[in-house]
Design brief:
The structure holds 2 protein chains of 2 kinds.
Chain A: H1 5-19, H2 21-34, H3 37-44, H4 56-70, E1 76-80, E2 89-95, E3 106-112, H5 127-137, H6 143-167, H7 171-175, H8 184-196, H9 199-212, H10 214-217, H11 219-226, H12 230-241, E4 243-250, H13 259-269, E5 274-281, E6 289-295, E7 305-311, E8 314-323, H14 326-339, H15 345-375, H16 381-411, H17 419-440, H18 446-468, H19 473-478, H20 482-517
Antiparallel strand pairs in A: 1-2, 1-5, 2-3, 4-8, 5-6, 6-7, 7-8
Helix pairs in contact in A: 1-6, 2-5, 2-6, 2-15, 2-16, 3-5, 4-13, 6-9, 8-15, 9-14, 15-16, 16-17, 16-18, 18-20
Chain B: H1 11-38, H2 45-69, H3 73-97
The chains are: A alpha+beta, B mainly alpha.
């Protein structure tokens, strides 16, 4: 390619980084936000009542009563106990398909009032889940297209990371160098900080992201070994999911087996573990059994599972011991690292910040590329200008669009038709408007105005929350409703960060115009 | 002495050629090597496939780097072609044998 190896790699690093950069940035930002999926979900369902100090057995009583009323013919029941991330009671049931009413089988879920035990009517919302899913399904495109596009982006990112490592030989020395006020050099130094500091995270998240979708992107391998077609692929997936289990007969009569007795038995066996949810699977069939899931924060494993089932005159307890194969265990480990479900609140913040560092790495990389292009006189000025504008629109438009998604949740009327779909439409309409605005407004003020807009919309969120619901920062603080208070304080902090960025840009621009005047 | 080339490709043609080689050739080689690796553990088919697919992304990255690192485009073409043929033969043999 070029005369020297490192020059070729530098070329490769630049172009693998640039071609899908906006998509990569979008994936990094939405994926990072996804680490707070449950916390965001709680904010987007302000009707939820936080449950405190209720015994698990009391919760089971309230929940089974409601499940009997609403999901008596359901094939699966789940009761979710209050945990630090979801401090409320939730039930869900799988309604079987109904030939008379022509309804397909579907999941229903509802949170419960811990005092009265009644179902809570939550507003219709896409919630945290849709926001988290954005980073691999891209919402509007068909699922398969979304998966392939994200995989291509991740592949380019992996190549960009490896070539980046090659070209920065003295990577750790460079990490401690920061030359302020030096134009391109300063941008390069910042880019290095954002890339090197969370480098293990970047490598892990990119590689494991590719692995999560490998069944689709590398499907020819399964085609060869299992045969083509969905049927054969499903056979592969089923076999790869098989877990090793240990079985034991416990001292309990089959007639005694119920959600309550299984829960009590599990608690006796694992005193230090907290139960996160309980499920009754394949109800009203011979294979009916009870699942107990623990909230596990001690390891990378998401949760450990106990299964109780009655077989003839005995009750059998099954404990899962993880995947059978060596490669499958490595895959599981990386998958859990990617999802970070085991992370406590502190580690979760590190995940979130590392993800944002990734986004910042992409953004600064783009800035360097643009600066270098502008320095060369032969480049096409109009094209560079268009890219520069879209660049500002994406870097600030994506966070603004996410905030507008939250605004939509609070401002759309409660009975608005297909409300949850419209929350998502608002997100993309806002992003489109940002691109449109940046395409036509005066370039000189673009950064400042967009930063101003971002600061405003994030600052607006806690106010909207206080005005449209009974939650506000002060009350949430007093009531120890940390998720509500945490969300409001976080968006407020983000707003302050945008204000700070606004001042920095403003001062710099004044400096430049003063120098130009002299 | 080699024959004099009939036409001299532009630098853009060289770049396009390498991009295509790395994207398509890299994907084919990544898949072929994943298939090859999937035969390694003889007792656990599923685990072999998982291991193969997991390695394929690392192999893909390495192939792309090699394609852009070698001095001449011709050499890159030969490199990819050789690997594709070699791996295909191996995979075909294994498919017949097992």
């Amino acid at each position: 390619m070029k005369a020297r190896f490192r020059q070729s790699m530098s070329w490769l690093h630049t172009w693998t980084g640039v071609v899908f950069a906006w998509m990569l940035y979008f994936i990094f930002v939405t994926g990072s936000v996804g680490y707070f999926e449950n916390e965001i979900d709680r904010w987007m369902k302000p009707e939820i009542i936080v449950s405190k100090g209720l015994e698990d057995s009391a919760i089971t009583n309230i929940a089974t009563r409601q499940l009997r009323v609403h999901g008596d013919n359901a094939s699966q029941w789940y009761i979710s106990f209050p945990t630090s991330r979801d401090p409320f009671i939730e039930i869900s049931w799988l309604e079987p398909e109904n030939a008379e009413r022509k309804t397909a089988k579907q999941w229903h879920e509802s949170s419960l009032d811990p005092v009265t035990g009644a179902l809570i009517r939550n507003r219709q919302t896409s919630g945290g889940e849709a926001l988290y899913r954005l980073h691999y399904n891209l919402h509007y495109v068909p699922q398969l297209v979304g998966y392939i596009l994200t995989s291509i982006t991740a592949m380019l990112m992996l190549i960009g990371l490896v070539t980046g490592l090659i070209i920065h030989k003295k990577i750790f020395v460079e990490f401690f160098t920061f030359r302020a006020q030096k134009g391109l050099r300063s941008w390069l130094d910042i880019h290095n900080v954002f890339s090197v500091l969370p480098l293990p995270f970047h490598l892990m998240i990119t590689y494991s992201g590719l692995l999560l979708l490998m069944g689709i992107t590398m499907s020819p391998v399964i085609d060869l070994r299992y045969g083509e077609g969905q049927q054969n692929h499903r056979q592969f997936y089923a076999q790869s999911q098989i877990e090793q289990k240990s079985q034991q007969i416990i001292e309990m009569l089959p007639t005694e087996l119920s959600v309550q007795s299984a829960l009590a038995d599990a608690k006796r066996r694992f005193k230090s573990h907290k139960v996160s949810y309980v499920g009754v699977i394949e109800r009203n069939t011979e294979k009916e059994h009870i699942e107990i899931w623990f909230e596990s924060k001690s390891g990378v494993e998401f949760a450990s599972l106990l299964e109780y089932r009655a077989i003839e005159d005995k009750v059998i307890l099954e404990t899962s011991l993880g995947k059978a194969g060596g490669a499958a265990s490595v895959y599981d480990f990386l998958e859990h690292l990617h999802e970070g479900l085991f992370a406590d609140i502190y580690l979760r913040w590190i995940y979130f910040l590392s993800g944002l560092f990734g986004a910042a790495m992409v953004a600064t990389g783009l800035m360097i590329w643009l600066k270098k292009r502008k320095a060369v006189s032969s480049t096409n000025k109009t094209l560079t200008s268009i890219i520069e504008r879209i660049n500002i629109a994406m870097i600030l438009g994506v966070p603004i669009a996410i905030a507008s998604y939250f605004v939509g949740n609070r401002l759309l009327p409660i009975d608005f038709p297909s409300r949850s779909a419209w929350e998502m439409h608002i997100l993309f309409i806002t992003l489109g408007l940002c691109i449109l605005y940046c395409g036509f407004a005066s370039k000189k003020w673009l950064w400042q105005r967009m930063l101003c807009c971002a600061a405003l919309v994030y600052g607006l969120l806690p106010i909207l929350n206080a005005l449209t619901t009974e939650h506000n920062i002060w009350l949430s603080w007093i009531n120890n409703d940390w998720l509500m208070a945490g969300f409001d304080l976080t968006v407020l902090f983000i707003s302050i960060c945008f204000v700070a960025a606004f001042w920095v840009v403003r001062c710099r621009q004044e400096d430049i115009s003063v120098k130009a005047a002299q | 002495m080699l024959m004099k080339p009939l036409f001299k490709p532009t630098p853009a043609a060289h770049v396009t050629c390498r991009v295509l080689l790395s994207v398509i050739g890299g994907y084919v080689i990544a898949n072929l090597s994943a298939m090859l690796i999937s035969y390694l553990p003889s007792d656990n088919k599923v685990d072999g496939i998982v291991a193969g697919m997991m390695s394929s992304f690392i192999i893909y990255t390495l192939i792309v780097i090699v394609v852009f690192a070698v001095k001449s485009t011709t050499r890159a073409i030969f490199f990819i072609a050789l690997l594709v043929v070699l791996l295909s033969v191996l995979v075909m043999y294994l498919e017949k044998a097992i």
